[in-house]
Write a structure and sequence with these properties.
Elements (H helix, E strand, L loop, with lengths): L1 H44 L2 H7 E8 L5 E2 L1 H10 L3 E15 L2 E14 L2 E16 L2 E11 L1
Parallel strand pairs: 1-6
Antiparallel strand pairs: 1-2, 3-4, 4-5, 5-6
Helix pairs in contact: 1-2
Amino acid sequence: MLARFLSLLLVSLTLLAGAQTVSAQSADEAAVSQAVEALRKAAIAKDRAQFEALLSDNVSYGHSAGRIENKAEFIKAALASKAVLKSLTFTEQKTQVTGNNAIVRFMYNSESELDGKTSTTKIGVLTVWQKEQGAWKLYARQAYRL
């Protein structure tokens, strides 16, 4: 009887510890999702300050066409682009947080206009985020054609 009680107590404590871990991860997952959303909004607004705040100084930013940019190159190109984003959504987002690292996968869907011509883009994206001094920063991004 005592052995069964101790067994149930151990299972209960394990479940409670797991629930606390899930809560902590859920808060981090929410914070990462907020950072992803802030990056989406920065892309639409071409917001240099937001890009500076959200990208790690060591970011490796990969495009679906194979071009790789560092932080300065990405920001310069994003701000110089003559294309106007009419809409940008990230769908099918999946976030996995482990400690101070997070992986976020999503579908990048956009409609843009350049010289009066509208085009749409749908690509897959893998991003890696790292918590730096309490803030989630984009550490790596790789887009790929579907």
